[in-house]
Write a structure and sequence with these properties.
Helices cover 28% and strands 16% of the residues.
């Protein structure tokens, strides 16, 4: 059976049974691998015709085409679905824009037609609540287009922006974001600690409940402190970067250095050792996070954050021996920590075992001055009575990375697990032979919840 035949059969069914098509809310498209540009265009057109058959469609899952500021039927089809609730823009490069960038500086690299076409796609999305914007291969989306497009979506609540150039998204664009509940900023060179501090004071930022800052290279801890101070409803915060945000020279330091009254879940991943982990641990001990319940710190140097959490008897998992890091021989030493959860769990377990090897208390049973028995109570890693759980589980099941990232979404890695596919062998005994049961290998679908990105 050729690739795409099942989609054609589904399309025919939905076209013939319109009452059934009106009930469709979500379409999961299998991971198709076209071998040429012509086949890729045919695949896009096929998926577009499937979208057009479902008038009440809310989600298209598993197939995300690249938009290069050129017309394609799938983007047009999705723009007509008034009940669409989530969309992922993968902005690719455009030959005309690239040629224009060699002769002039931004803004103005996108012509009027390209900007208007992109904005027009958002006109009917009155129910869209989740939007992803990702630049791929130097894709360009200029500042004014950013701001106008986001303000065309009245129901927008969850926004992710990734990998755009400093000329497309910067501190000024950040101040113009609409009211949101969840925001993820990733790999954006134009965002600085000053811009984040100013953004924390805007009215639109006060509604944010989930905030993720990934690879923004925040220089000073004051930016994070300001975010915690002004975002009163913040319940989940994620910080991932290589360098450690430090206290600026000359600043007075009072404990707690950072504090949030309502924060419940904290992902803190600073790859290069610095004072950030120590400042966070000291702030927790000083009562700066009274409602914090979970910390995930893959790069917990010296166990500073593990020491302020509730003690655990075991943190390694039985499945760790199947991880890529285990097969690669990662030993879990601080030098090889990286950002793999396998190494982080192994190092955390070593700290638990080392603490257990040293007795914390000795109980002596004595009667009439005679010692009858003595018991050593092993030590533990953590703080007894702490309400904070130390968590080193991944957002994406089976992954060695803590955070769910765009490759998880775009590459279809959740559908290519070894020995997990289907080629129709279960029906191989059919008397019609191989032509009846054989089809292109189809892998088991594992849903990726977009809410886990925030």
């Amino acid at each position: 059976m050729k690739s795409g035949v099942r989609l054609k059969l589904l399309r025919r069914t939905l076209r013939e049974r319109r009452a059934l098509a009106q009930l469709v809310r979500e379409i999961k498209v299998p991971r198709l691998q076209p071998e040429s540009q012509m086949e890729n265009t045919k695949t896009i057109d096929l998926v577009a015709s499937l979208v057009m058959a479902c008038s009440n469609l809310e989600r298209l899952v598993g197939f995300y085409s690249t938009y290069s500021h050129c017309f394609d039927r799938l983007t047009h089809a999705l723009s007509t679905r008034q009940r669409l609730k989530e969309h992922i823009w993968i902005i690719g490069d455009n030959a005309a824009i690239t040629e224009r960038s060699l002769k002039q500086l931004p803004p103005g690299l996108m012509d009027t037609r390209q900007a208007q076409d992109f904005l027009h796609f958002h006109d009917s999305w009155h129910s869209l609540s989740t939007l992803f914007l990702c630049s791929q291969k130097q894709g360009i989306l200029e500042r004014d287009v950013f701001v106008q497009a986001l303000h065309l979506l009245p129901a927008l609540q969850h926004l992710c922006i990734s990998s755009f150039d400093v000329d497309d998204f910067d501190d000024v664009t950040l101040q113009s974001l609409p009211y949101l509940q969840s925001l993820r900023l990733q790999d954006l060179e134009g965002i600085t600690f000053w811009g984040l501090s100013e953004f924390s004071r805007t009215k639109s930022a006060r509604c944010i409940k989930q905030l993720s800052l990934v690879n923004l290279d925040i220089t000073y801890l004051s930016a994070i402190s300001n975010l915690f101070l002004h975002l009163k409803d913040l319940s989940r915060f994620t910080l991932v970067q290589e360098s450690s945000p430090e206290v600026a020279a000359g600043d007075l330091v009072f404990q707690p250095v950072v504090a949030s009254l309502r924060l419940q879940h904290l992902h803190w991943d600073i790859l290069v050792p610095g004072s950030a982990n120590q400042n966070l641990a000291s702030s927790i001990q000083a009562g700066g996070f009274p409602n914090l319940r979970t910390i995930r710190a893959p790069s917990d140097h010296d166990g500073l954050l593990q020491s302020v959490c509730r003690p655990r008897a075991q943190i390694v998992q039985a499945s760790d021996k199947y991880s890529k890091a285990y097969r690669a021989g990662v030993d879990g030493t601080p030098g090889s920590l990286g950002r793999t959860l396998f190494a982080a769990r192994k190092l955390a377990q070593q700290r638990i075992e080392n603490a257990r090897a040293s007795p914390r208390f000795r109980v002596i049973v004595e009667e009439d001055g005679v010692v009858h028995e003595a018991f050593d109570i092993p030590g533990y890693m953590g703080t007894v009575g702490s309400q904070i759980a130390y968590n080193l589980d991944s957002d994406a099941q089976g992954s060695d990375s803590a955070l769910m990232d765009f490759p998880d979404l775009l590459s279809g890695m959740k559908e290519v697990a070894p020995r997990d596919g289907c080629t129709g062998m279960w029906n191989a005994s059919h008397p019609a032979g191989k032509k009846w049961w054989n089809h292109t290998e189809r892998f088991r679908y594992r849903a990726l919840d977009l809410d886990r990105f925030f």
